[in-house]
Amino acid sequence: MTMRAPANDLPIVLEAASYSVRGLAILERISLTVAAGAPTVLIGPNGAGKTTLIRLAMGLITPSAGRVTWGARDAVPPRRRSIVFQRPAMLRRSVAANIHYALRSAEVERRDWDACTADLLEQVGLAGLGARPARRLSGGEQQRLALARALARNPEVLLLDEPTASLDPAATKAVEDVVRAVAARGIKVVMATHDLGEARRLAGDIVLLHRGRVVEHGSAAAFFAAPKTEEARRFVAGELLL
Prior knowledge:
- The structure is a single chain.
- By secondary structure, this protein is an alpha/beta fold.
- The chain has a single domain, classed as P-loop containing nucleotide triphosphate hydrolases (Rossmann fold), CATH 3.40.50.300.
- The protein contains 8 helices and 9 strands.
- A 6-stranded mixed beta sheet has the order 5-6-7-3-8-9, with helices on both faces.
- The chain is globular, with a radius of gyration of 18 Å.
- The chain starts with 11 loop residues before the first strand and ends in a 6-residue tail after the last helix.
């Protein structure tokens, strides 16, 4: 199965984008460009706005003010974008049937489903588990199945909302291995995490959010070697940002 098609959703550009719920500001005037390349990792304390920013980039919600564009276009249907949530829902079906559902929604020809499913399961380390009920998989296996379903859409951009937050170290490594392989194939990964170790291992660039604002954005190497803002220095040092 070919995992990449001609680009058309990048760059994702947020122009002074804000998002509020019942008058409460969740994001405030975010200006950010997400371009092709190594993974962009969003970090910050709980409540910083990471999940909301992921949802804006996916197009699941619209900004209360400002603008989001995909490939310089507004209101682009998410055909080239996929998202995996922290706790993805598993259909009451087999592992293979979960992927078949995603392939159907992606309008893949039925005759190709079995080959595509086998390929996707191999990619996420679940080969041979197609007949197993999806809800009987471990938490880490379910997260990798969610990744396989997301990849069934042949995305240009893969958005991940803290996909390893509730996983043990072995399961975390398995998910991170998939993320690395996906990024190596040219799919743009945008990932939220609260784990600085994970951010160091995966990120090409870092976006630090605090109180709904972008505090710092730059290459991961520069961010961890010499953070520019006081908030970034404190966060990297393991101090609480209040």
